[in-house]
């Protein structure tokens, strides 16, 4: 039966016989055909994309109808200060409700995409992974004891691991679908999927970290961090540390290019509370870009690049970082697409690079979890920040936008063609705008 590209999967399900729309072997073949690589279908849960599944959707709809409960960094920080078993059980049951609710919103978004998009092998993989996790968590009984909580923690850790490869699939899926739906809508879809993913991971990790603290007997937290929230991040120091790493990575790639010196000005003593891994990811992406541009510009000339001016401004609501370089500015052809996952002159090369990754999860931030499943923090961004030089996925700025906006901040780039760029990163201070709720994307 012919399917109009604009038909949603639900409409399609209503008009077709109850049979599997795509089998596992078909899907493996389609993935191979579309990417040139065989996809490891062992990791894929059994297909849920069928018309029958559509009629069994009541549980999903029940969860999708609930609003996500907003939570802020400030709440995290206060909640984690004094830990008791009751607090841990309360947190566990909160996570037990919040994860499937937030997942249901995104699954519902996917169901409203045109059927031809959800049928894309990458998208259907993401859909099935989400559906599987949604079911696994919603079926977990109420957590009444610390033993129950330990079992719950094992489940969510396992699910975190299973979701490690989601980002490349989402991005490849939307690039392959760019002709089937307005790219701006696809971008909104990807942004809300990724933002929701951050929220779920932050909630989960916070709970896991608190559980570990309680089990280790650290019930009163007076240290530098509460869970993932670092209370006194030194803004200039964070830039320096990220610049060291970015400098090493870019120099390794451009042995004949030069990295600029950093010159600081403004409120250089600023300290603020934030999730350190998120801040370092953002700073790392910005610094890699500017170092890359400087190293490319000076490659082989022996010339020293102009210094990178880093201005820090501490306002009542935000900490603002401005990075002013003289590395030539943005290539004009990419400016209209700088923040897009779906479209742009480089989207095909992005797709090619993603499919050439040694494994689909090599790009994502949780890779650490794979090498050490017992690692306390399952979602450090460090491996993404320190990914090999030359891995230009063209997603640094679109991903940074999602992370910055997630916490009520923003990121902007102003370019002077042939001269240089100013990149502004606004970080919302703890508790002021850091509530995270979810919105429907389509
Ligand atoms: N400070 C900068 N100076 C010059 N070009 C830049 C700068 N920042 C970003 N760019 C350009 O924007 C492109 C997109 O950046 P990004 O989204 O981080 O993806 P990637 O770095 O993987 O290509 C870069 O490839 C580069 O061409
Ligand atoms: Mg980049």
From TrEMBL:
Gene3D superfamilies: Alpha-ketoacid/pyruvate dehydrogenase kinase, N-terminal domain (1.20.140.20), Histidine kinase-like ATPase, C-terminal domain (3.30.565.10). Its EC number is 2.7.11.-. Residues 70-215 form the Branched-chain alpha-ketoacid dehydrogenase kinase/Pyruvate dehydrogenase kinase N-terminal domain. Transmembrane segments: none annotated. Keywords: ATP-binding, Kinase, Mitochondrion, Nucleotide-binding, Transferase. Residues 276-427 form the Histidine kinase/HSP90-like ATPase domain. It is found in: Mitochondrion matrix. InterPro entries: AK/P_DHK_N_sf, BCDHK/PDK_N, BCKD/PDK, HATPase_C_sf, HATPase_dom. Belongs to the PDK/BCKDK protein kinase family. This is Protein-serine/threonine kinase. It comes from Myxozyma melibiosi. The lineage of its organism: Eukaryota, Fungi, Dikarya, Ascomycota, Saccharomycotina.
């Amino acid at each position: 039966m012919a399917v109009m590209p604009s038909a949603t999967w639900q409409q399609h399900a209503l008009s077709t016989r109850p049979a599997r729309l795509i089998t596992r072997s078909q899907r493996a073949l389609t993935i191979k055909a579309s990417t040139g690589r065989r996809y490891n279908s062992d990791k894929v849960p059994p297909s849920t994309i069928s018309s029958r599944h559509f009629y069994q959707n009541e549980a999903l709809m029940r969860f999708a109808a609930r609003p996500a409960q907003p939570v802020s960094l400030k709440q995290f920080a206060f909640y984690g200060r004094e830990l008791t078993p009751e607090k841990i059980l309360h947190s566990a049951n909160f996570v037990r409700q919040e994860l499937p609710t937030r997942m249901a919103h995104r699954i519902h978004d996917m169901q409203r995409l045109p059927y031809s998009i959800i049928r894309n092998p990458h998208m259907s993989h993401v859909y099935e992974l989400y559906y599987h996790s949604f079911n696994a968590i919603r079926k977990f009984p109420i957590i009444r004891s610390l033993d129950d909580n330990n079992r719950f923690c094992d489940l969510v850790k396992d699910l975190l691991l299973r979701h490690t490869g989601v980002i490349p699939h989402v991005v490849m899926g939307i690039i392959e679908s760019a002709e089937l739906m307005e790219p701006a809508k696809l971008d909104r879809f990807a942004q809300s999927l990724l933002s929701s993913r951050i929220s779920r991971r932050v909630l989960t990790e916070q709970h896991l970290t608190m559980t570990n603290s309680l089990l280790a007997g650290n019930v009163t937290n007076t240290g530098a961090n509460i869970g993932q929230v670092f209370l006194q991040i030194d803004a200039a120091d964070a830039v320096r540390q990220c610049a060291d790493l970015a400098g090493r990575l870019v120099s390794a790639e451009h042995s004949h290019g030069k990295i600029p010196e950093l010159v600081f000005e403004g409120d250089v003593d600023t300290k603020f509370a934030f999730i350190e891994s998120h801040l370092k990811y953002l700073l790392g992406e910005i610094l890699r870009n500017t170092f890359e541009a400087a190293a490319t510009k000076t490659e082989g000339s022996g010339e020293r690049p102009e210094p990178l001016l880093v201005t820090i401004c501490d306002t009542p609501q935000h900490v603002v970082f401005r990075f002013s370089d003289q590395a030539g500015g943005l290539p004009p052809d990419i400016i209209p697409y700088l923040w897009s996952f779906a479209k742009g002159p480089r989207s095909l090369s992005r797709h090619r690079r993603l499919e050439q990754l040694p494994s689909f999860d090599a790009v994502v931030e949780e890779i650490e979890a794979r090498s050490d499943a017992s690692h306390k923090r399952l979602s450090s961004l460090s491996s993404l920040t320190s990914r090999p030089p030359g891995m230009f996925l063209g997603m640094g700025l679109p991903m940074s936008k999602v992370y910055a906006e997630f916490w009520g901040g923003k990121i902007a780039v102003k370019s002077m063609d042939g001269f240089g760029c100013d990149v502004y990163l606004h970080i919302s201070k703890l508790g002021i705008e850091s509530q995270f709720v979810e919105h429907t994307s389509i």
